[in-house]
Every structure is written in C-alpha cells, then in structure tokens.
C-alpha cells in the first residue's frame, strides 16, 4: 500500500476511537476522498530540492495580472499597526465561504503559490483574501514593528473584523510554511474558544518547530535557501531603519550569517522575546496543536529540505481527531508539483486546499 494511503488508513483507525462524533465523521469522509488522490510527483521532480524549486518556478495556468483588480483593504490590528489584504469577493459575499490565505517567510500576497491558490478558490465559489503579514508586500510603512511566527493576534483581529463588520460566517484559513505555522498556533491557542466563524484550517509545509527549522536550514545542503532568505531579510531591515531610524540599529546587520543569528539579533529583540531560543520555544505551533478543535488539513512532504518531517511524528497530531495529516514521501517545501491528472493542474496541494475547504464549509 502506498505510504500516503497507509497513513490515511492509520488515521481512520485512530479517529474511530477518539474525539467527538462529528469530527470523526467529517475527517473520515474527507480522508476517504483524498485516499483516491495521492500525490504522485512529476517524473522529473523526485527530489525534495527539485520539488521546492519547481513549486516556485513551474508555469501556472492563470493570468498573473488578474490579481491587480482585487480590492486593497487595510485591517487595523493595533492602534499603530495596519495590515494590507487583497480581496476578491463573490457578488453576494455573505452567502459564500471565505478563505484567508497566508504566505510564508519573506513572501507576500503576490507570492505565486498564493495567487494560484486564490485563483482556484475563487473559481470554486469562495471569497478570497490574500493577507500580507506585517511589513510584507511593501507595507513596511504601516507598522513600526517587525513580523514573526508568533503574531496570532494579527490574524485574530482580521477574523474579528470580517465576522463583525462584514457579516461573514464561514471563514477558512490556509497558510504556507510560516503562514501555516501561524494558523496552527492560533487554532491551538484558542482551542474550543476559536471564533465560531472559523470552520476549517489548512497548513502546507508548516514550520511548526522553529528551532528545528533554524537548525535544518543552516545545514550545508541548504545554504542556497538560507542565503536567499537572509538577503531578503537584510534588505527589509535596511528599509525599516530608513523609516524608523530611532527604533532599529543595523550596525551589526552585515555580521548576520544565519536565520538563527538574524532571529537572535532582530526578530526576538523587537518581538518581546529574550533571544532566539526563547522565541522558538514560545512561538512554535507544535506545543499547541493538540488543542485544535476545528477540521484541519496538514500537508507535509517527508523530503522537505528545511522543515524536518520528524517534527510531525508526535502524538499531539496523530491523536487529534480534528486533524487530517497527509505526508507524501515527495513534495519538497511548498512544492507538490504532480504528474498530469484529469481535471486538475499539477499543483496538488493547492487542489487539496480548495477541496478540503469546500468540504469543511459545507459541513459547518
């Protein structure tokens, strides 16, 4: 039996004896559906590195310029902090479920995987919000602060406004990498007190153990990824220092050689953490996932080059009847570029997000 199907079968066995009846039933049904659609990698993209690169570079079948017509909207999440989202509404928005999409580290609302998922979701009948985290997508001027993996209050403020001001009652959250980590952390922190309007969650390649991720990306085999992230983070810090010269001292920025070093000098210091280790310990979603009480899809490839698969082999995920965990052997980090399949494009994880969100919204 293929690994993915075997894992789904094991999950069915686990949820048959634990968790509320409605959670068992819903997850069982979607697991059965997904068992018929396992991830089969493109024959030329078998390695984790190849999948990771292809996830960003493989051509998409939609108009990349179409997003420019989306409504730009600011959400005030703190008195001096706003976040920018790009919204595409169905004509009668209150009658449709809404997906909030969150990008990964140093991504934005126009990251290609976000745009591609947004296109699929809108075509499937969802309202779609592509949310920029603080400072991302050219929004450094909207906040004096930095962003980090623990800022769940930002997402909660956006959900609150959409629920109370827009009257949206079926909201789904879908995040990639750091965005997935943030979603899982929020859902775990809130547990049974998660806003009722949130009816489902999806996390693709989520960085749920920040310490393990920092260690993994520092390995020699991952130097290209780390260098790319660091260059982007350093550019952002220079821009922040120009905007807020009294807040940020970047005299040591040139000495930063790793993600951990950057987090130690900047992310932790300006995020209310003692140091990088304190930040990783307190902000990682792994310690909270056992408390999630909403239908949740987690997809993570066993060959992800810089988010260790071992982080997911824990009872807090396996024994939570609200979580469907899919772990194909291949897929890389936010890759999952598949062989050609009837009725779908090659971006397997994006298709599973839309399918899961449709199921969760209809079951709510």
How would you characterize the overall build of this protein?
With 364 residues, the protein is α/β, with parallel strands linked by helices. The protein has two domains: 285 residues, Rossmann fold (3-Layer(aba) Sandwich), CATH 3.40.50; 64 residues, no CATH class. The protein is 39% helix and 13% strand. The protein has twelve helices and eight strands. Strands 1-2-4-3-5-6-7-8 form an eight-stranded mixed sheet, with helices on both faces. Helix 6 links the parallel strand 5 and strand 6. Helix 4 packs across helix 12. The protein is globular and about 55 Å long. The chain starts with a helix and ends with a helix. The N terminus is likely disordered.
Main-sheet strand order equals 1-2-4-3-5-6-7-8
Classified in CATH, the superfamily of the largest domain is: Alpha/Beta hydrolase fold, catalytic domain
What is the number of helices? Answer: 12
Q: What percent of residues are in strands?
A: 5-15%
Provide the low-confidence segments as ranges. Answer: 1-20
The domain count comes to 2
Helix content: 25-40%
User: What is the CATH topology classification name of the largest domain?
Assistant: Rossmann fold
Compressed to H and E, one letter per element, the order equals HHHEEEHEHEHEHHHHEHEH
Which radius of gyration do the C-alpha atoms yield? 19 Å
CATH class of the largest domain: Alpha Beta
Distance between the termini: 32 Å
General shape: globular
Based on secondary structure, the structural category is alpha/beta
